[in-house]
């Protein structure tokens, strides 16, 4: 296992190298399959990485859609120690050749959802069939180790090493079933996305291999080396355990099948993950609960359509030969007057806001009457106001506390005065 010791925010890919460990016994049956697979070089290549080379590549690389290639100008020095720019061009074919992935341009980069999930059920996956993200911890030990190797060698993500991406699930299925799969194109696509997006350190080992392939004499500083840590027995110990799961509840053992069992295994016809005469357990019952996505790429997320905010500003309407576009309110002029700037411009009226509806029997007090009542109350002294309210309180409720009622109505009066002032300011 190799670990990139760089900054915490960078990508930390891990891949499997050594196999002579005492704790590898539960997974030893998968090792020959990985050594003979087409991802062997990408999985096991011990290539020295240099941080400045990888960082500079991701910060300066650009993608040309016309040529379908990634371009990068590497700054270095010539024999006379003069600064020069060495052009670097990376294509899908370069990735295929340098990593020896043995795929073709015509190979698929996505397999049917039913085929992929049926294969995972055959490996003994114990999670829910419609889970958005599958977990390698839901597999028995040998297939958990297989998923671990592929995730840490080929994944483009910074973390989530227990959760294989959709394309990782496809790669594992195609490797075991001996089906073609364009891994080179998948890696290239994620490199393009990184160039257009965050530009973090992705695929540092692959990038260094591609740079060294095109510039063999690339100057390297030993102090700039990225330190890679090999897989050790502790990693294998963790893989041999199921955290928080009792031994009786662990995923049960599933036998070898496909290319893991037979090196000359022939892929099933069509979208099948097993041959008709296969004697292993049938996964048809587990697939009954599967809800297929209504998408070509079944793993892709549905993009939410952004709602357009309606425009409320006045629209400019140009007189002349008018051509209707999306709506009758949006008009475009193509007349001669438009191009000669001899144009009359008028502003279309916007819709006025309607006043809120009133109840049928709701009394409406004229503003002048409201102002008059407020002015009379302002001219009234406190003693007069107490007498006035005392008389009203005596008539309405006998035995009530007149002073408290007067104070309450005085507060209401002050509130009415404040509201009146606001009304006058607005008027």
What distinguishing features does this structure have?
single chain, 427 residues, mainly alpha, three-stranded antiparallel sheet, 9 strands
Topology at a glance:
Layout: H1 31-36, H2 40-44, E1 49-50, H3 51-60, E2 62-64, E3 69-77, E4 83-90, H4 92-99, H5 113-122, H6 141-154, H7 166-177, H8 183-196, H9 204-214, E5 225-226, H10 233-239, H11 284-287, E6 316-318, E7 322-324, E8 331-333, H12 336-339, E9 345-347, H13 367-379, H14 382-396, H15 402-426
Antiparallel strand pairs: 1-5, 2-3, 3-4, 6-9, 7-8
Helix pairs in contact: 3-9, 4-8, 4-9, 6-7, 13-15, 14-15
Summarize this, please?
This protein is mostly helical and 427 residues long. The protein is built from 15 helices and nine strands.
Characterise this structure:
The chain has 427 residues and is mainly alpha-helical. The chain folds into three domains: 22-287, no CATH class; 316-347, no CATH class; 367-426, no CATH class. It has helices at 31-36, 40-44, 51-60, 92-99, 113-122, 141-154, 166-177, 183-196, 204-214, 233-239, 284-287, 336-339, 367-379, 382-396, 402-426, and strands at 49-50, 62-64, 69-77, 83-90, 225-226, 316-318, 322-324, 331-333, 345-347. The strands form four sheets. Strands 2-3-4 form a three-stranded antiparallel sheet. Strands 1-5 form a two-stranded antiparallel ribbon. Helix 3 (51-60) crosses helix 9 (204-214) and helix 13 (367-379) packs across helix 15 (402-426). The model is unreliable at 1-14, 296-307 and 313-349 (pLDDT under 50).
